[in-house]
Amino acid sequence: MRAIRYHEFGDPSVLELETVERLSPDADEVLVATRAIGVNPCDTLRRQGLWGDELPLIPGSDVAGVVERVGERVTRFDVGDRVFGTIPHLNVSGARGDRQGTYAEFVVAREDRLARLPDDVGFDVGAGLGLVGITAWRALLHFGDLEPGQTCLVHGGSGGVGHVAVQLAATLGATVVATASADHAPTVAELGADVVLDYRRDDLRDAVTDAASGGVDVVLDHMLGEYAQFDIDVSAYGGTVVAIGGNYDSPVIEDLTAAIGKDLTIQPMDMFNEPNIDVVLERLAHLLDVGRLTVEVARTYDLGDAAEAQRAVVEDSFPGKLVLVP
Ligand SMILES: NC(=O)c1ccc[n+]([C@@H]2O[C@H](COP(=O)([O-])OP(=O)(O)OC[C@H]3O[C@@H](n4cnc5c(N)ncnc54)[C@H](OP(=O)(O)O)[C@@H]3O)[C@@H](O)[C@H]2O)c1
After folding, report:
1. How far is the CA of 119 from the CAs of 35, 44, 81, 134, 289, in angstroms?
2. Which of these, 177, 191, 246, 302, is most buried using a 10 Å CB contact count?
């Protein structure tokens, strides 16, 4: 099969289109004929060697496609099922995860990494949802305990995680304040944000405070190094700041007393620690099915153009997700 692999860490040019052996599914695994592959910023961190992966590696966590074969212990899927999911492959949290990344024509995945893709939903949408959907779900629902009527601040509301988080928070009945580049504000508003603020505004802190009367109950922060003190300042008493990324080694907290006075929780999290990926995927699939959730697919690329897609995912400004097509 054709797959993208890299044999050394480095810039996008290390990604090579190769012909590699197709794996057979183990007893609890499914072989998926890939139709679309989501591209995530973490794919580029791994490519640079920041996760200490063993090489060579087929990158990628997100996939959508059609079940080609099932292992003998697989109970949830049959050949021909349309599926999507996300695969914590290799060296995640120090343990070996699944056997293969997703930038390939065929992917073996444990059945509990997948869910059925609703009939009317495109493979590109399914491929874009897995990783960011679980991240947003875990952040807002598992760690944020977001409730209807509360106020949620989503930094980077047009991003992969952000645009799903905006939709989940709106569906839940929260008041959603999001930040985004001005160009993408209309998209973020259409997805359900009550207020969208340009993150480049000099008076952003005051604008969020005005928009969130009584303070923000749950913050989804993808750049804690930049926004730690900001989050503390705009939070309500008893609020939660869920931190999913961004310079954890240098968050600038100038006034910790404000956080103490508010009994704040600052909660870093990693979506790959989610023990029930399949359960969350099934709930996300339901929301896709009933039209309460979608994925903005900004661009698709041929599998062979993975290097360009990985460059773009960190350098370009676009709403939603970039997707590869094998
Ligand atoms: N912990 C976890 O489990 C987990 C899971 C998923 C992702 N992550 C991390 O979370 C981050 C976001 O992931 P993603 O997939 O959503 O990335 P993404 O699709 O690239 O989105 C990033 C968003 O941040 C916006 N942004 C850029 N500079 C900003 C600023 N100064 N203030 C506010 N927003 C800004 C971007 O807008 P413009 O492009 O318009 O500037 C873009 O909308 C990444 O660092 C990723 O590695 C962590």
Report:
1. 14, 31, 10, 21, 8
2. 177
Ligand 1 centre distance from Cα of residue 40 (Å)? 10
Q: What is the dihedral angle through the alpha carbons of 285, 121, 321, 5, rounded to the nearest 10 degrees?
A: 90
141 versus 247: which is more confidently predicted? 141
Using pLDDT thresholds of 50, 70 and 90, give the confidence band for residue 246: confident
Structure-model confidence comparison of residues 226 and 53, the more confident one: 226
Q: What is the DSSP letter of 95?
A: B
Lining residues, ligand 1, CB within 6 Å: 40-42, 131-132, 135, 155-156, 158-162, 179, 181, 184, 199, 222-223, 226, 244-246, 269-271, 317
